[in-house]
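Comment thread on ticket #2218

A.B. wrote:
> Attaching the input chain for the structure job we discussed in standup.
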Amino acid sequence: MPEPAPPSGRSDAREGRRRLGLIGCGAFMIESISAVTLATHDMQRAVRFYRLLGFELLYGGETTAFTSFRAGTGFLNLISQPAERQRSWWGRVIFYHSDLDGLHARLVAAGCPPDTAPRDAEWGERFFHLTDPDGHELSFAWPLDSHKD
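C.D. wrote:
> Ran it. Output below, let me know if you need it in another format.
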């Protein structure tokens, strides 16, 4: 017997969850990201870079194989990897920073110019991009006043 069509008004997303067996089985929404871990070939250089950005060092440091920084209510971790372990493009991490233009100016003054200048985006954030010494793409952003709740 064929499965009946979903009642009118049922969303495609809900129908997809139903077909995967996620409706009524206790599946919950992800609340937040706890941590992001990035690989580095040079822990000393990476730790100095992230401290320049303003991240608070919580664990590890320049001579350890694993380091953890505070990133708001979450964490940014670094893990040492051998030089022969290479990767291709993986994506971008976006951090909120309330003094976006000040951070950009501080990086330029420190001889670490970001990839882009701060600009206002149509989706309601001001942002700029930066590549860390290991090639990880980072964005720093802050909501524009006109888009705040």
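A.B. wrote:
> Thanks. Noting for the ticket: Residues 33-147 form a domain with the 2,3-Dihydroxybiphenyl 1,2-Dioxygenase; domain 1 fold (CATH 3.10.180.10).
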